[in-house]
Amino acid sequence: MQAMVLPAAGQPLRMEQRPVPAPATGELRLRVVACAVCRTDLHVVDGDLPLPVLPIVPGHEIVGVVEALGAGVQSHRIGELVGVPWLGHTCGHCFYCTHGSENLCDTPRFTGYHRDGGFATHVVAEADFCLPLGLLHQAPARVAPLMCAGLIGWRCLKAAGPGVRRLGLYGFGAAAHLIAQVATVQGCKVHAFTRPGDAEGQAFARSVGAVWAGGSDELPPQPLDAAIIFAPVGSLVPAALRAVRKGGRVVCGGIHMSDIPAFAYRLLWEERQVVSVANLTRQDANEFLVHVQAHPLQVHIATYALAQANEALADLRAGRVQGAAVLLP
């Protein structure tokens, strides 16, 4: 097999030839068909997140075909198309796992972070955390971004609370362009906030349903019920608080964000809230996939060969990708 490997934080990925892995008990071996490139992958490669395992193969938005079953696996079959998301293992017995919050498990394992991910021709994953995709009638390259950009967007939209009719999305990348469509179907008027002066990004946002698009330094025409921040920029928190109404909520959807600057208490006053979203649950995945089956999404992608993983990461870092970058091994 071939794999793009991160030898150390801040270094380019390098191509390696490795033996094809055998699945252990409870695992699947997949032939990777597509793996989207997430901003979290960028945080891993750039060293924004502490790395528990090195070297590591990044990638956690995986679509693959089941090639081999480990002992005891009965939930999947050879030849099945499945997805592998960020959450790759939970303990099942800590407080959070037993109270419906497995996304907060005390000892989780994440794909492409604790265990090798999908920037490769083959990957091994726990069967219980693989998602059946047979009912999604889109090309695998367009399904791959759903495995994180879509899932985390779904969880963020749920965290925004019930009754949201005017929704702001700060940072209009892979997650925002998907969840804008979901929110529109649910009756929201989506307001997109991009880098100031990014006319192309604002036009893209309007093309997938935003009723208004402007720079992150602007205020929307009317106060928002809620805002979701996907860009890893801490200064967007006070900006979003300025944009939401009294009692409104700001959801921080990233795994990493630059420091939030000090801001006047009056921005938070009047029962505005700031909350964060961490990881996802399998229940989130099940809900989201049911929604996508009923309401297919326009998934905008830029594709790269596996050997071009560093190029894909560079394009994502520079904001040159409209939608999602996807590797095609």
From TrEMBL:
Cofactors required: Zn(2+)
Ranges of residues in domain Alcohol dehydrogenase-like N-terminal: 26-133
PROSITE patterns in the cross-refs: ADH_ZINC (PS00059)
Zinc found in the keyword field: yes
Lineage top rank: taxon: Bacteria
TM annotation in the entry: none
Alphabetized SUPFAM superfamilies for the sequence: GroES-like (SSF50129), NAD(P)-binding Rossmann-fold domains (SSF51735)
NCBIfam families, per database record: adh_fam_2 (TIGR02822)
Family: Belongs to the zinc-containing alcohol dehydrogenase family.
The protein, known as: Zinc-dependent alcohol dehydrogenase family protein
